[in-house]
Batch of 2 targets.
Target 1
Amino acid sequence: MTTRLFPVFADLRDRTVLVAGGGTVARRKVAALLQTGARIVVGAPVLDRELEAWAAEDRIETIMGDFVDAWLDDVWLVIAATDDAAVNRAIAAAAESRRIFANVVDDAELSTIHLPARVERGPLQIAISSGGGAPMLARHIREHLEIQFDDSLGALAELLQKSRARIRAKLADLPARRRFYDRVLAGPIPALLRRGDTTSAERTLQANIDTASPQPVGRVALVGAGPGDPGLLTLRALRLLNEADVILHDRLVSDGVLALARRDAELIEVGKHVGGDHHATQSSIHRLLVEHAKSGKRVVRLKGGDPFVFGRGGEELEVLQSHGIDFEVVPGITAAVACGAYAGIPLTHREHAQSVRFVTAQTKSDDDGIDWHALAQDRQTLAFYMGVSGLERIRDRLVACGRCPNTPVALVENGTRSGQRVVIGTLAELPELAAAHRVSAPAILFVGEVAALATRLHWFGAAPLLGFPASARGATLARAA
Ligand code: SAH
């Protein structure tokens, strides 16, 4: 196990801090210390002009001369900022023997306390440290944060600080307070402060406090997790994942997405029951949703892709509605759209396809309610979900209804994920193609001229596999495309 620094914020009011050194570096440290209310003693043979000015204003005390041990009497913290490495070392050693924390400027090894890079917004401070190992990285991150957080964050911190006691009095219990703050921070107050409208912000916060109820109101967000790559989540999905008490997720949801959830959220996988009893699975999901929401939890029902595309999202909402539970729906990027993008298959194309259909090939019976004649029409792209096991039937029906056996097809397995594979061939050879490459779930099937474009437009992961391994047919297709 590697040891790491322990981050703390020190209260230095009326405590003595020695800054050894009288140059620019020492002056910068003193400038930061001036805001803390510490008793600052600067020891050095000579002082720069600004330090002298501060001494004249009695904002700092000074000891003129070279460091001696006695400078450390009464000191809580020392900053060695001289331009002489030997002196800095001596100061660090003297501090160590007296158990005084010392920061030696630009020397992580000698420092027993590190001064982080900081972003300040009113009472709010963000401190960044790389443990002395990569100060430039810490600085880089600070610059990012400086841009990301405007000054209104300080006003927000001040406003919350002012109201803290009132909020505590109204909501004694911690989870209730957390919910309250989540709601306030997601509401209009931050935007009001960004506009500089402090009066409205204060009024809105007071109204929020007045109407706050200690009784938690559970709600459910039906959220699309996208196909796997966490970068494809929506901002709304990310926020809900960060606020959730409970997350009920399908097996299809990637680890990368789950890693973005609030750390103390309860994660429950509600994959298919062993034996594939869909009915039992679905009704136990309904039961869990209702139970958790009724106990006042913020529940996220997280589904792969989009919750309303072959996701049974509608059924779950009907159950919630019948129990009077509040819900919202956050769309996600559905597999057809995501896999098309990451495989280099445009779903529509001026020359090849004027429409696209999302189809599920799950039902096995001939009377499956699917209009195969319509699907077999030219100039359209078909995206078959859940198709891996029914490929023979898909091929036979499409060809029987008139789709050309030479129509290009593409199977995209693990789309957008690190193991993405794309297999390309023709409709005629579809089942053999999948078998030869052992394509397995999750995979989506595209049928249509656009499928062949992946040979040219692929950009993510491994290059597409063409036809059967080492077969002449793959080469023919590559030439055609
Ligand atoms: N609601 C989901 C679909 C659920 S059905 C959505 O909008 O994407 C599950 C099917 O989606 C899988 O059988 C597969 O066909 C497809 N699928 C989901 N994620 C996929 C991925 N990362 N790569 C390929 N296919 C995927």
Target 2
Amino acid sequence: MLTALNYINGKWSETSTGNTKENVNPGNVNEVVGSYQESDLHDLNQAVEAASKAKKAWKKLSGSNRGEYLYKVADIMEERSEEIALIASKEMGKTIAETRGETTRGIAILRYYAGEGMRKVGDVIPSTDASALMFTTRVPLGVVGVITPWNFPVAIPIWKMAPALIYGNTVVIKPASETALTCVKILECFDDANLPAGVINCVTGKGSVIGQGIAEHTKVNGITFTGSNSVGKQIGHTAFERGAKYQLEMGGKNPVIVANDADLNIAVEATISGAFKSTGQKCTATSRVFVGSEIYPAFKEQLVKRTNELLVGDSLAEGTWMGPCASKSQLATCLEYINKGIEEGAELIAGGNQIHHDKGYFIEPTIFECTDHSQTIAQEEIFGPVIALFKVESVNEALKLANDVEYGLSASIFTTNISEMLTFVEDIEAGLLRINAESAGVELQAPFGGVKQSSSHSREQGEAAKEFFTSIKTVFLK
Ligand code: NAP
Ligand code: MG
């Protein structure tokens, strides 16, 4: 059985609390994947002190020197990609095909940011004084605290840690407890790439202790968080109070609009993939679908038929399309929302039930036909494989409903009409727009983030990450 230790100041260390917790496979609850430590603030403090001590020397390295380390981490991770994909799949239940893809993505992100170490970090701005040179440069924040969720246990830690490091910050990460083992496997790659001690540290434990501790620690200069809205807001308040920089990526309630002129097959397949891959546990997952009244009967029929054909089961088995919910509590939340949907009068037209009870936390991909957009299942993030399906009379009506939620992360439209596409681009309230493509899907070299309650309005990934992980110095030189 795997035992995940903390990684502090270049060493694997046991917590003084002596408390450990087991992570079980949500698709095979008799299988213990391994255990991680429930650390305390003493452990966290050691990690932050180590990161704080290491920050000066790390910042002094050239960007290309730092990049060399990231290239090395990527190479090591590539050798271990199957092992990492397997642990991630067992720990949170995504199919092995999906965690393989995610691991490949993680490696590509490392290489992308390794290269970023040689790209520009400032501008020359013409001064009104002809004898002066005015320019900007960027400096690291210092120690960056990284708090991550369980739904992308490989990609999210890397898309935060890699840019933090390349721009000269040192890191303390607290991974989601549900996927602590996967994160420790990633940290082993950093360890084996011989990063200087203290540059990267990992402390596992309760969010309310270690996560909150990171938010409060006066030596943590920036916090990057992905997770739920309630926790994100609390972290934001805490960081704001003490003047730390923060970045929050949170929930979504992502719409798909299917116009009457859409390609039916493409729209149905993309809706299914967007809504049900990863058991609907993506922040960018499709959860509301607005369909033009002319295409509606055919769309509904094909959507239900295809949904009923999806193979739900063992994440590691060849041919499985959808794995379990990531945890017992995720399953319970989904079932609660399904009950609420029925109670509030939505019509259940596919799925709705827990399945394979004896094995784990499996649920059928579920579709509700809805008429009232104020219903709970149309408003709140479920984070499970549940679609709320609506018939609309026009793209304008769809846009109005699509925007009638607190969130604004991703959104799709299916149409062949360019003017409808442009109206969508103009009017949809979301940060990630997808036209004739599913709502979930992010390229690592492009900015990612949301508006409204989905985000603190900063952007991650690509070059956009530079905005968060550095601050600008404006220099006037005469
Ligand atoms: P979560 O409960 O907010 O947890 C996220 C992280 O915060 C975990 O590491 C968690 O630790 C930690 N945490 C929990 N309580 C804390 C506290 N009081 N103070 C500081 N940290 C704390 O979210 P989740 O359930 O893991 O993830 C699902 C949510 O993430 C969904 O809402 C989803 O939409 C969102 N998400 C957003 C994006 C995006 O990019 N916008 C991407 C993926 C997921 P423990 O694991 O120990 O509780
Ligand atoms: Mg949680």
